[in-house]
Each structure stands twice: as C-alpha cells, then as structure tokens.
Design goal:
homodimer; 209 residues; alpha+beta; NADH Oxidase; 4-stranded antiparallel sheet; globular
Chain lengths: 209, 209
C-alpha cells in the first residue's frame, strides 16, 4: 500500500528549508483531505487557520518554546477548535445536511435535538476536549496528505494556545488553537531525516480477543 | 489524489454484513497504518485490542448504547490508551530507540529525562487525555487505511469505557478503552451508504493569515 511507504517516509521535520514553498494547489489538496476527516456527529467543530505571513510566523516562535519550525516552514496550519458549538450551531448544521441531501426542511429536527442533548450535556471544558479529540483526526489526515504529496510536516503540541489565540485573533472568531502543523520542505541538513523510524513491532502493540 | 476518492467513499457504516470478514492480510495492513501514526514524543501510548470473537462482540453491544455494529462487523478494533506511561516506560522507550538507531546505550538519557519531565508533570487525568488525543491520530490512520482498501468502518465514541475495560480485561493490562472502530463490509441495505457526504465547503472552514 502506497500510504505505508508514504507514512514511513514521513518524519517530524525539525528543520525546514525556508526557501521552498508549498504550492497553492498542494495546500488546497492537503486541506481538502483534512476537511474529509470524520468528526463526532459530522459536526466539524474546527477550522483551519493557515498562516503564511512570515512576520506572523516569526511571532509564533517564542510561544512555541522557541522551536524554529513555524518561522522556517512554508505555512503553519493551526487546527483551531470552535468554542461556539451550541444548540444554534447544531441546528444550522442539521439544516445544512438537509440541504446537501435534498431532505425537507425540518426532517432532521429529531436528530438535531438528540445531538443538542449530547453536546450541551457537556460542560465547557468537556466540550473543548471533545472538539480537541476530533481535531487530532483532522491532524492525522493532514499529515497523511502531506506524506503522500512528499511534503514535510511537523505536528506540534508544544505551543502556548492562549498566545496563538491572541496573535491570530482567534477568540474573536470563537476559535481556540488545538494543535499545529507547520508544512513545507525539509532542509538538506536536517539530521533527523537520516534516523531510522522507530515503532514498536505490531505484535507488541496488539492483543487479539 | 486517490486518498480523496477513498475518503469520499468512506462513511460511518451503520449496518455491516455479518457474513463478510476482513482478511488477515488486510487486517494486518490496517493495523500497520495505525501503528505508523505520529504520537507525542513517538511514545505510542496505546495498544490495539482486536476483537473477533462473536460472543464477546455481542457482549459489547449493550455497552455501546445498543448500536449493533460491534456484533455485526467483522472485527472490533478498540484503541486503548496505556495507563502505565511513567518514567520507567519512557526510559525503556528511549532504550528501544537507541537500539533501532544503532546508538550507544545511554545516548538518549538526556532526551528521556526531558520526556519524563514533560509527562510526569501531568496528573493522571491529564495524562489520560494526552494519550487519548494521540489515539485519535491512530483512529484516523485506521479509517484511512480501511477506506483505501474499500473496507468499511464506523468510528464510535458512544460506548461505556469502564464496561469495555471489564469485558476485555483491560485494567489488568494497564489499558483503558479510548475509541472504537468496528471494521467489515457494509450491508447491501444500509441506507446510509446512499446519502451524500456532508462537509462544509473548505472556504468556510479556512482562515488565511
């Protein structure tokens, strides 16, 4: 399977070549694969914040524990979770589904009610964690798409969300930075690229019942 | 990109054909793609619990809010997070990396210390959530692998972890059920398969900075 070869090729790139840039077409493909991620109830409780502006990418570095990837990569994709997933948002999502599937308006009211019950039974913190989990499915899809396109990436949890939110004005958009993926092309002298991939053997990772 | 076509083909299968079974080779491929998932520090804080036994799959149904997929699918892949990610586990992981990369024993001691600092600064609940997030990257990889192989799957968060842990004896293995993926082949009359895929347009999902 090609994906296996692609995922073996992938590694968490520590040093990007700042002179190389991901093409608009490839960026579009990567985001499209991310947007096809499965999410809880299909609610897609996230948005992509794609940072290409070099000055802003540089501003992110001190709030990324001084990791240089946000500055050196071609684009920084911030997967931000929505903080506005409420009854109204869910009803609108149901309306959108009715529209896409040529259903009558109101046909999904019962299902919307069920979703609203499930989501609003969570407190704010639980809802954030629920959305964050979904954002990791999106992250995985982005990484796979990059790998298939031979584009490098580096998943990053080591950053200060409140500062990312401030710099990218996410609070005003009802968003919260969840996980970050700089994308671009590896530097020729990133020594990490020569290291053997380390995965525990599948036999040690699996129990059969 | 083939992945896009595959992910568009994928849907959360509500009704599996219980007469069809995923082949051992395909199952191996799916798990291999899951095992190639990126995880925080490469620590792989999870294990696969693959349930094929029909009686046990049936037992899972009442603790899955009576969703029939665990009983009807070919295999239920439970992604369980490790509850034993401590200093010793991390040191062993570093030893294993040294071995795979032909490094001298002890060469990664400093890095191990850094990881231990980061992980043990989290309390038990935070560590569980940290591992659960990683498990969603694994979930995404499994779903993508299935889709590429034209194998159906249904990601499930709607289950009672404590009961899954009990039935599958996970506590004794220092594991905790995080998220569940029944895999198999769709039933011919699963009406969901005819529904148009619903995704908000990428333009509405993306902010450019």
């Amino acid at each position: 399977m090609d994906i296996i070869e692609s995922l073996k090729w992938r590694y968490a790139t520590k040093k990007f070549d700042p002179s190389k840039s991901v093409s608009p077409d490839d960026l579009q493909t990567i985001l499209e694969v991310g947007n096809l991620a499965a999410t809880s109830y299909g609610l897609q409780p996230f948005q992509f914040v794609v940072v290409s502006d070099p000055a802003i990418r540089q501003q992110l570095v001190p709030f990324s524990y001084n990791q240089p990837q946000p500055a050196q990569a071609s684009h920084v994709i911030v997967i931000a979770v929505r903080t506005d997933v409420d009854a109204e948002f869910i009803r609108e999502s149901a309306r959108f589904t009715e529209q896409v599937r040529d259903l009558e308006v109101g046909q999904l009211d019962g299902y919307a009610k069920q979703m609203i019950g499930a989501i609003t039974s969570m407190n704010e913190q639980e809802r954030l964690l629920w959305a964050q989990k979904q954002s990791y499915i999106v992250l995985a899809n982005l990484m796979t798409a990059c790998a298939v396109l031979k584009i490098d990436s580096c998943p990053m949890e080591g950053f200060i969300p409140a500062e990312y939110n401030r710099i990218l004005d996410l609070d005003a958009k009802n968003l919260h930075a969840s996980v970050v993926l700089p994308v671009g092309y590896r530097a020729g002298d990133d020594e990490q690229q020569g290291f053997a991939k380390v995965r525990k053997p599948l036999g040690e990772m699996t129990h059969f019942v």
